[in-house]
Amino acid sequence: MLICSRKQRLETLKKKLEGAANDVASNVMKEAALELRKAGNGDDIIQCGVSVDGAWQRRGNSSLNGCVSAISIDTGKILDIELMSKICRFCKKVTSANINNSHNCAKHTGSGGFCQYEATGAKLLLSPLRLPNIANKHYIVNRIGFEAS
């Protein structure tokens, strides 16, 4: 009973810490976007350079989890992050519970090459829905360099 109680307490603390970390990260990224807006001389749409970089949980292409971040070249601050995974937890639950699978799947499909993860993450991060009123004039992607069209 004591072990179970400790596990429950640990899970409760993990959830609280996760929520607090997500709130802080969200606020910091909003402040970075506002800083860009202030530097944009009052324009409706801000044109800025963005560097996109990714990281794996483990070294190599065998890792199941990673993240991609968009970093402002002007300020050096992170504007947004995208978590990438080869596993969708909702799909896993659906197959075990025989529930209708109608959701936006979070699973990254395709080859596990690191460069492809970064390119996919860049497409998701730099969409107008994620960073409204910020036009990314140039993309610089680690290991893949490409210009915005």
TrEMBL record:
- InterPro entries linked to this entry: Mutator_transp_dom
* Origin superkingdom: Eukaryota
- Identify one Pfam family in the record: Mutator
Q: Which residues form the Mutator-like transposase domain?
A: 7-108
Question: Could you identify this protein by its name?
Answer: Mutator-like transposase domain-containing protein
